Amino acid sequence: MKIFFNKKKNRFESKEKIPSSSFIFSKEDGVWYSTDLKEIEKYSEFLSPSDRRILLELLGKEEKDLDNNVGFRSGISENQNESKEKDTQEEILDPPLSEDVFEKIFDELFEDIDEDIDEDIAEATYLEVEYGTEKEEAEEESEYDFKSNLEEGKINSKYSLEERLKNLDMFFNSLSNKNKYGIEKFIRYVDSLSKEDIIDEKVYKKIKEEIEELIKNPDNSKSERALRKILMLPTRPLNLSKEKLHQITKNLDTNLFGYENLKDQIIGKLVYSLNNSHHGPYNILLIGEPGTGKSTIAKIIADSLDLKLNTINVANLSELDLPGSNRTWNNATEGLIARGLINNNDIKTAVFLLDEVDKAISRSNIINQISALIDPNVGFIDMFLGLEIDISHCIFILTANDKNLLPDYILDRCVTFEVKPLKDEDYKILLTKIAKNIISERLKVPISEVDSLAKRIVEDLSENKISVRKFQIVLNSLIDGFYGYGFKNNIKVERNLNDFYVYFLGNKNEILDQN
């Protein structure tokens, strides 16, 4: 027979099916986790009198039958009992746990752990321990009550990135303390992620593999890091309500001059994704001479979606940058694609700029990786995570100076747009918007207060017919210089637009020549 203390019902119960017949003590919450009556009997001296009576009844014994247990022999006075308990308490509360015992604890861990487990047992297979005048109770939460969570509208927060990482940290803590109950609790949480379609089957299986590896080898830091990264992969689609689409359209119209067909294609792709859960990545190829604003267009697209732009300079890529490195390498890490998704605030739609693709055309390995990345029929595997990651919601924006250098299999997978130099009027409008954003961010001024200064700066710099990219470099360099000038002369820099413009006029030509 096996026994556990049902905290919810505040009583001992006997059950035939219990997850494990192991025995372990958790210092953290002062609780004995046990399912074996013989083990419980050994430590019956630490039970309260009422709980001890229940235990004796379940055992079919009388108190005299427990006379081998120190502290509960017939005839021992209460004072003697308290004294003896103090003498032995430290030793009893921290029993040694050999590696063999620990291995035995997890023998059944991955053998259909979800099947035939009573819900009450899954929530609390433990004995509450009472010693001295202090009483520590095991935390009892019904974390897997899906119906109540749905009714209260809490189901999303329960599986948020923050909650996933919080549960993971508790798992790592349980692992280091060899707390079987805490580990099983995390596995049930992972199971719930799968059942509620928060994670797909591939991710679910990989997480279970990493858990199993960490149980066998708790010091495997790479497996620990990979598990954390996998749980950080995004689970939420981009919020694409009609109101959100209208806002995205407005942002594109306001910030992206011309390119009406490009804007229509982007909105059309987003609308399509609303009604189609299975679709490949959206690939845009921008062709144009250096400085025509290709990278700026990519930034505008990402900003309009309220997403970060992940810029990847293709010309400088190594063969391991995109797919990550195998864990056998000393400095193994995830690839740039996985990293961009991990850092995307739990949103599946990530925007990647693959800049200057044509400069890597002679490097077949890199071009083949990019080809696989933008192919909707080919899965993209991250070598460090050991997992095919979902990139079906991503937007890949490729740029190139010369379309003729690119192979057909790249061109065929992209919607291609030619980026031509803007008309003077549109050019100045674009530079003004760029200047307002840079000045507002770097000088800590509300964007509504920098319009006049931005227009004056654009008029002064546009006379030189510089590219959009060079304009950004020059303006940022001037602000860098202004910070240094302010420090040397004890001048306040932030929110100081007048002094900045004076500095700008005195140094713009030198900065233009340097760049």
TrEMBL record:
Transmembrane regions listed in the UniProt entry: none
Disordered, as annotated region: 67-91
GO BP terms: protein catabolic process
InterPro entries recorded: AAA+_ATPase, ATPase_AAA_core, Lon_Prtase, P-loop_NTPase
Molecular function via GO: ATP binding; ATP hydrolysis activity; ATP-dependent peptidase activity; serine-type endopeptidase activity
Matches recorded under SUPFAM superfamilies: P-loop containing nucleoside triphosphate hydrolases
Domain AAA+ ATPase intervals: 280-425
Protein name in the entry: ATPase family protein associated with various cellular activities (AAA)
Protein's organism: Hydrogenothermus marinus
